[in-house]
């Protein structure tokens, strides 16, 4: 099975909303619709630091990674925060999350961003194991922020 990663496009909006709603339901979170509308608009705003990458399997959108970049606060260069990474339930365990993380780490390195951060709850062992494997993989500067 091959996972293809690409930039988000306007036609991805309906699928993004579908997966986003499933993501919020899984975590039992309710978010005002205006917030998600604002997020989507920012993805395509040339002045925005928000970016979104899309994972596809056989032409079907199976996941999204949303990240934010800003000027570094500790050292010169940019920081990158993984805002959200979510995968269709049918694709979990099939490499979609790892492919999105591989892509994000590669993007950080290619652009010279100094650090990559992500947030992980103590209870989310799957995400912790995935993210921590990157910390140990090659010495690139990454941080997991636990809440």
TrEMBL record:
Pfam families: Acetyltransf_1
Protein's name according to its UniProt entry: GNAT family N-acetyltransferase
Signal peptide as annotated in the record: none
Keywords carried by this UniProt record: Acyltransferase, Transferase
PANTHER family: ACETYLTRANSFERASE, DIAMINE N-ACETYLTRANSFERASE
A GO molecular-function descriptor: N-acetyltransferase activity
UniProt-listed InterPro entries: Acyl_CoA_acyltransferase, Diverse_Substrate_AcTransf, GNAT_dom
Domain N-acetyltransferase: 3-147
